[in-house]
Amino acid sequence: MKQSNKTIEKRKIAALYCRLSRDDEQNGESNSIATQKKILQKAAADHGYTKTKFFVDDGISGTTFHRPSFQAMEQAILDGQVVAVFVKDMSRLGRDYLKVGQLTDCFFPEHDVHFVAVNDGVDSAEGENEFAPFRNIMNEWYSRDISRKVRSAHRVRGGAGVPLSKPPYGYRRDPENPKFWIVDDEPAEVVQRIFQMYLDGYGVEQIAVQLECEKILAPNAYAEKHGLQKSGKSMTKGPYAWKSSTITKMLGLQEYCGDVVNFKTYSKSFKTKKRFQSPQENQVVFEDIHKPIIERDTWERVQERRRSKSRVRKPSKSEQHMFSGLLVCSTCDANLNFHFNQKNPSITYFNCSNYNNRGKQRGDCDATHHVRAEFLEQVVLGDIARIMAFTRHYEDEFLQILTESVGTEQQRQLGAMEREVATLKARNAELDSLFNRIYEDSVSGKISEERFAKMSRMYEDEQAENEQLIDLLCHNLLTCKKRTGTAKDFLATVKRYTRIKRLTPEILREFVDKIIVHHRQRVDGVDEQKIEIFYSVGKIEVPDRAKVPQVDVCMPIRKGVVAHYSSDRKSA
User: What is this structure's pTM?
Assistant: First the structure.
């Protein structure tokens, strides 16, 4: 049923909506934008609409409704500017049957919009079309089927080593075989420079600033200038504006080694274009497919530096290193405090807390007892590995060493604590006697009341402090006598681990009781550091035997200084 021209003239426009996706292009001229425009212009005229406006989305899938012209038409409807919407068929409106149904059944009627799908015979002025929902479902199935076929083709191509992604900056498609890539010399030199700068210690932000200062075209600007396919977002800050995120992404591209990495991302549904990162095990790598820009060993060194930087974050006061509380200064028995290098937080180390506090409070230490956390970890890991190797090959001898060590160490500790308790108790008895004496002197007038009050307060404070120490020592005595740290228990702990590749806080606490750190000494031109490891059963001296590795750790700790630790050195 046609509306009168008089009624139509009172309204604004009839929206003629055209859409063409890349899949539709395969069906020939029948779906072309030009064909759609002819069909819609004639249909609008046949229905009496003279004021029309085209809304065209070319090359956009019907599974998404984030289309510029469609959204413009939708806004025009909300603004009351549209009286009718014409499409060639229901699939031009979209291929999501839920969304299309919401538009035709709710949105258009609510805004008094006359909807016509010419080839499908749908006209809202003639009432509901019972077959329209089925057409919407079939249109969505078509997209689902196309998506399935495309995915299948991608799997075949990707599984054969054909790159599925666009060539990254530094490569371009091979004119003779567009499926593969060739090196683009000018940007390839920039890529090589970026990798070298990173290895030289530059951060990604510094690299980006340097490239921008030298007015080197950013990847998208370079692609636009040379007519190459662009990727990512459009330029907003000028052609020379390099982003640190761009540098970060480039440093992680394995493709620069000459490899092809396929299936790096995936979509959860054909209805959404959002891509998600694939797990490492789902990605497929084909090595040496094209000419490399970066040597493989250079790329590996860059990845190692990136991993070391990403693992470390700035330590907060509430955070503790796994060695915190275990390290003791050999000079003053104070704990070693955890620190990080302000300029490079990946450099972590410990040094004596008393030495750090010199000048602020009384300190008894005149040396830093500085030890790098990484150096310490290698020493402890090597020593535990040495004990494990000795256990595997000389278990009986190790058990005998443990038994003697445990007995001797336990007796030494018990004796020392018992002597200290006796000393403190004797001192408290002496303080009682002194208190009685000054009380008598105060009564007889030999000392003033002020003097008595001051001395009595001093004696009481000392007694209170001694009582606290006595309670702590008695608790430690009880723990030492009851603890299950026997030779057989420690042996069972060692045998429970076949091989320890990495030191963890749990393993460290299970094996080690404390570690005494000495200050580095220069011996025969070599910096050597003595580290004494006390296990849960005390200090273990493992004799040299065949099949037992030596612990030899050598590490640069700062420019020009290399620290050594070796289990066969006198200082170790």
Answer: 0.38
